[in-house]
Description:
Oligomer: heterodimer
CATH architecture of the domain at 23-133 in chain A: Sandwich
CATH superfamily of the domain at 23-133 in chain A: Immunoglobulins
Radius of gyration of chain B: 16 Å
Distance between the termini of chain A: 189 Å
Mean pLDDT of chain B: 85
Strand content of chain B: 5-15%
Strand content of chain A: 15-25%
Amino acid sequence: MTNDNLTKLLVFCVLFCAQKTSIVHGSQALETKVALLLHVEPENPKCFAEGMSDLTCFWEEDEERAGSADQYSFIYTYQNENSSECAVTALPAAGGKRLYFCRLSRTQLFVPLDIRVFRDDLLIHNRSLFIEVVFLLDPPSNLTLTSTGTQGQLKASWLPPSLKYMGDSMMYEVSYAMAGSHIGKVEEVQASSELILRGLQSGTKYKVRIRAKLDGISYSGYWSAWTDPVLMETIPGDLDPLIVSLSLIISLVLTLLSLIVLMSHRRFLLKKIWPIIPTPESKFQGLFKVYGGDFQEWLGHSTGGLWLRPAYFYSEEFPAPLEVLSEVSLGPALPSSALPPKASEALGEEEDEDKKLKRVDSALMEGWRETPQEHWLMDQLQSIHQHPAPRTQSSLLESHDAYVTLNSQNHSGEEPLDDILEETLPLQVLFASGRTSSESRSDLGSLQQSSGSGRLSSQSSFEYPNHTWPPKGSGYTYMAVADSGVSMDYSPMSSSKIDDIGKGVIYTNEYKNEIPAHRRPIGTPIHFAF
Amino acid sequence: MLLEWTKPGLSNPLRPICDLRVLKHFIEEARDAEAAMLACKEGRGLPEPVTVPQTKVDFNVWERKNALEQAQEVQSGLWLLNQAIGSLRATVTNTALHSHIDNSLRNIFSIGQVLRSLNIQEYTPPAGGVAGGEETWRVSSASELLQVHVNFLRGKVHLLLSNTPVCHQGSS
């Protein structure tokens, strides 16, 4: 007996607890629905059907004016039927209100229902409705979110309310938003129990909730309450290929543009980064390229340069212009010596102060002839030295000495230049060592003046083998020059004019070489006729 | 498809029409007729009460009935409606209402065709021409009649069509 009692007690307790839980749960749901309908439904009493054969109606009253539940009577009448009454219950509500409920457990659909509420025989509410259009369902259950495997997508699935015959009329609304954000999107789906959410951000947590509603031609109702939100994170995203490709293209385009700009300003940039070292090559044509920087060589071949003339070099290198030869006998005509061609050239090209000298020099050149035999010359000079002729004017003229006449006339043409070449040696030595050229030149210059004609010409006595020394006129002055081959002795000059004979020497400058004595083996004078 | 089974006198078996959108269309047209009747002030009263089927559905009761009973209930109700609306037409003078009434009659006929495609037995009126029974009642106004028409289609007819085993066999 005790065991049976205990068992019964246990069963009772379990059932009670379960019922209490369900009641608590049910009351919570009821509160939500009531709150919903209070917002949505304007008519009174507010009625809703939760299932296929039930109906819950309620109305609200202020606490102050509210009466007890038994004061109210809820009368309902189906079409073509007798009226029935529903028991009214009261429940306290928030905000100083009271709720009065009536619940019908067996209902008829597709038939009009009249509801009247009386409070102490006073009609307070009156309403006619169809039950199949006031459905207020529970929210869908078992809302789950799964990943579809594709980026930016989530799949939401749920369990539809278990209502027969009403599946095709069921409509759902899915609300999804990023976790923490209040701005969300809503999607409606009809007669389905799952939905794929697209266009979501990768690697983001989303909050999803759902509500249901009957929305068909036969059945209809209010939106249910939202389910509790379910959170789910989308799969992390890879680099969007479109973005990657676009960024690559943009970088390529920018690189190309920069390259083009660099290439167009290449020279400018090079000048700035790597400036060119200035070279004087433009001013000296071919100095570096042809002659490798050898300035002297370049000068030799250069056609340009106003201030560079080889004349300067040659004028310094080469001796003074005069060359004297002597001949004693009437032997083969001694070719007149010739001035060194270079000197003549130099003379010919001289333009400075010694212009007069230049002319003299050229005159001298023309009178000379070549002397092929130097031995013979030396002998002649010796003989002259040993037998000096009396220095008389006439004897001078008629002597066998070699005479050199300086013609004051400029001979045209320059053909003797070549002849002059080989006789350069004696005179060269003389003039190179003596360095009295400046003296001689000046003297010669004065000579020129004294001659009066302004010109001097030279002639060798070899030209006149028969002592037919033609008097050249009054303008001639002559001097005796003794050339030993090594040295030369100049006797004072005397004029060729017979008139002037005895008048003395016109020009008494003495040309004396400053050659050391050992170099003057023979001091035979060479007569220099002017 | 609609034209195919609206043709009278077709003897060849019809394909089952399981799409409930057809019925939805009929229901909406019936609603339009009811609304038009309510708007019209004249001719609202019937010369004599007509028998109309009961539209109420108690699911507990409905589910206890078998398919045959359900079918019979629907078919007889449709026949009654057909009779009642037919008689209404004679009393109404408004041309706009005439079109609505004609439409309703056409739709009732079409529903009959749909039921036939679903192998639902046709109703044969009892002998005597007067169909009585627990599932009927009498109305005396045209608006009530048309309202019954709408509710009948929304209720019983819809339930029957949405639960035919023929249609469910194909989908499930």
